[in-house]
Design brief:
3-stranded antiparallel beta sheet; mainly alpha; 10 helices
Length: 220
């Protein structure tokens, strides 16, 4: 097990590449958590160092200190990654660990506390110390691509919540179908069939939607 390191204020500032005065300012603005106190001595750890490096990276990307303070508050009060993953990791999806600056780079300008809170409420994001965990690489990549195509992140998240409701209904439909004719133990083995049906039906539905647009572009 890695031994937990602690630093005095001067050492932490040096490792982070900032002045002690700047460190005090960040602490006063609550950009970093309070240090551990031992009498009159303040002790900082690697969690504080990681947060300071994140602040530096976000500043380089053009974020303001006020915006960073809001983001820090969102992460400090966000869902724990244990709550996000529940009893275990997804069986077919791959969770992705990100630093806050990596998340900001994907959604530059739209990684607001409101959007972060919506993503956490939806169950897309959880926090693990100074790391962010997205529950699905496929969903993360799709969201990133949509935002880069010009779709606002807030609307992507709103659509995600609507898709979630339909997906839950489809999962219930498939489970009910299987359980009427087979044992519950069959569900894991048969789940690829459910995915194939949904993917095929969605593909056909998109074909119908596109043909409709071509035949009647004005929607008349």
């Amino acid at each position: 097990m890695t031994e937990k390191r602690e630093y005095r204020m001067e050492e932490l500032a040096r490792l982070a590449g900032i002045t002690v005065r700047t460190l005090r300012f960040y602490r006063e603005r609550k950009l970093i958590p309070p240090p551990r106190r031992e009498g009159r001595i303040a002790w900082y750890d690697d969690h504080h160092l990681a947060r300071l490096r994140t602040i530096a990276a976000l500043l380089e990307r053009g974020h303001t200190l006020s915006g960073i303070a809001e983001l820090a508050d969102a992460f400090d009060h966000g869902r724990d990654v244990g709550d996000l993953l529940g009893y275990g990791e997804p069986t077919e999806e791959t969770p992705v660990r990100l630093t806050p600056e990596e998340l900001a780079a994907r959604f530059e300008g739209q990684d607001t506390p409101e959007n972060l809170a919506a993503a956490m409420e939806l169950g897309y994001l959880g926090v693990d110390g100074d790391a962010v965990v997205h529950i699905s690489r496929r969903l993360l990549d799709a969201s990133t691509a949509l935002v880069r195509e010009g779709v606002p992140l807030a609307e992507v998240l709103h659509a995600g919540s609507r898709v979630r409701a339909h997906a839950d209904a489809l999962a219930d439909l498939f489970a009910d179908l299987v359980l009427r004719h087979a044992a519950e133990e069959q569900l894991p083995r048969l789940r690829p069939l459910a995915r194939s049906v949904v993917e095929a039906e969605l593909s056909l539905a998109l074909d119908r939607r596109l043909r409709k647009h071509v035949d009647d572009p004005d929607g008349s």
